[in-house]
Amino acid sequence: MKPTWLITGGAxxxxxxxxxxAYQRTDGRLVILDALTYAGNLANIKDLLTQPNVEFIHGDIxxxxxxxxxxxxxxxxxxxxxxxxxHVDRSILGPKAFIKTNIExxxxxxxxxxxAWNGNFNNRLFLHVSTDEVYxxxxxxxxxxxxxxxxxxxxxxxxxxxASDHLVRAWNKTYGLPTLLTNCTNNYGPWQFPEKLIPLxxxxxxxxxxxxxxxxxxxxxxxxxxxDHCEALLLILERGKVGETYNIGGNCERxxxxxxxxxxxxxxxxxxxxxxSTRSLIRHVTDRPGHDRRYSLNTSKxxxxxGWTSKQSLDTSIPELVRWYFExxxxxxxx
Length: 335
Ligand SMILES: NC(=O)c1ccc[n+]([C@@H]2O[C@H](COP(=O)([O-])OP(=O)(O)OC[C@H]3O[C@@H](n4cnc5c(N)ncnc54)[C@H](O)[C@@H]3O)[C@@H](O)[C@H]2O)c1
Fold this sequence. Notes:
Blueprint lengths: L3 E5 L4 H13 L3 E6 L19 E5 L5 H11 L3 E4 L6 H6 L2 H22 L7 E7 L24 H20 L3 E6 L1 E3 L8 H10 L4 E4 L5 E6 H14 L5 E4 L4 E3 H16 L10 E4 L14 H7 L7 H14 L1 H4 L3
Parallel strand pairs: 1-2, 1-4, 2-3, 4-5, 5-6, 6-10, 7-9, 8-12
Antiparallel strand pairs: 9-11
This protein binds nicotinamide-adenine-dinucleotide.
């Protein structure tokens, strides 16, 4: 029997990149469930929607009747859950949607998988995609967090993801559901909704608009190309140990200010700026409340056990990404 993957949030940033890679790598069926919130965009995957083994379902992961029907009608064998409210600033302004989608939605998916698979877990997997933000903020000299580190989420977003991770763990320990959990660092790449740092700064810089930087801009994040993240997820689906958690990261810590400056330099290069650098557009604005200073992951488990390493470098990717957003400005303006 060929597998049928349920890819939730497949019209979002990482989900759409994953869908594209999965389409090349599997001969099974790919069912996408996406509510098409402000962050979901069918234009991200329009080339795939006409393929015979791809089906798009417009719906919400918190809709238990719908989710249960999808499991029954499509004989789902794998779940890869990307669907989430994902922007920290929005979680500060309106946390309710984060509780609903990120916690209740994951509960709904877990229950539907448990009921549909009914103890027959052969060739069944439930992969939940989560974030490094669950481990909380690190000091400059703290060692990177491994999979055994305690959870210390600080934002409503991070706490809702942390809660969902705990649900996934409990459904594995209590009901034997074959789960996999991944915690990944900041992704960059094409088709990212332009509220997140990198696409926002690229598009503003291309338009000659101000480039807002929170506080001193010295918050440190680890950065990973979305294609490396998606490769890691496929590998974990193929060879990961059921019930385990894997950290995924790029071993590439940078301050936000450094990222913004690199983007400015790449934009200057692309637009052949002779009238002064785009760096002059940088504006330091009031910091986000509770803003974590640093995230950093120890990814040696994934390297050691599954032989994964990241392939893309941030420094060479930034100019390519600037060009991608430049050439796809119409896409960026669609939502
Ligand atoms: N972007 C990152 O840097 C990053 C890093 C680590 C982990 N993650 C995690 O990866 C996942 C995907 O992140 P992203 O950046 O692609 O997010 P995104 O915001 O770009 O996309 C989320 C997608 O989920 C859909 N969605 C939202 N609520 C839904 C609901 N109730 N039902 C069905 N669909 C719904 C949206 O329409 C959208 O297509 C998230 O779980 C996020 O926490 C993201």
